[in-house]
Amino acid sequence: MVSKRTTWRNSIFNRLLFVFLLIMIPMYTVGIIIYGLGLDSIRHEYTNSIQTSMDNFLNSFDEDMQRTQMLLFETVVNENELMQLSAAPEDLPQIAEFHRKRQETYNLLSSF
Questions:
Q1: Could you tell me the pLDDT band of residue 1, with boundaries at 50, 70 and 90?
Q2: Separation between Cα atoms, residue 88 and residue 67, nearest integer Å
Q3: Predicted pLDDT at 25
Q4: CB-based burial label for 84 (10 Å; 0-12, 13-18, 19+)
Q5: In-domain check, residue 74
Q6: Do 48 and 99 sit in the same domain of this protein?
Q7: What is the span of the domain harbouring residue 54?
Q8: Where are the beta strands (DSSP E) in 19-93?
Q9: Lowest mean pLDDT among 6-10, 59-63, 68-72
Q10: In angstroms, rounded to a whole number, what is the distance separating the alpha carbons of residues 56 and 100?
């Protein structure tokens, strides 16, 4: 009579299952390791991308602020009309007439 233990060892299903697990467990382990390495690589690249994007934004913002400050400085300090206004208050009616004509011209041009 054959014992149950011997039958279990000689079963083809059990042998196939054992070989399948023997092959699949290392492959599954290698897959998990590769997935972890890929995830770390993607995190690193994503962080670098965000950092570069923020650096570019801050540089652009800084350049825009400098340009705005220069335009403001040029407008306020170098404006001939403002200099004339501050130097000759008796010419205010002439300057007001000049600005009125300028505004009319602008309104006429912007209506097209």
A1: very low
A2: 31
A3: 96
A4: middle
A5: no
A6: no
A7: 1-65
A8: none
A9: 6-10
A10: 43
Residue range 70-106, pLDDT digits in tens? 887 776 666 666 666 666 666 677 777 888 888 888 7
Length of the chain in residues, anyone? 112
Q: Note whether 33 and 39 are within 8 A (CB).
A: no
For residue 18, with 0-12 CB atoms within 10 Å meaning exposed, 13-18 middle and 19 or more buried, which class applies?
A: exposed
Please, what is the average pLDDT of the chain? 83
Residue owning tokens 């208050």: 89
In a domain, 96, yes or no: yes
Provide the 8-state DSSP code for 78.
S
Residue type, 49: S
Enumerate residues 6+ apart whose C-beta is below 8 A from 98: 81
pTM (two decimals): 0.48
User: 39 with 87, same domain?
Assistant: no
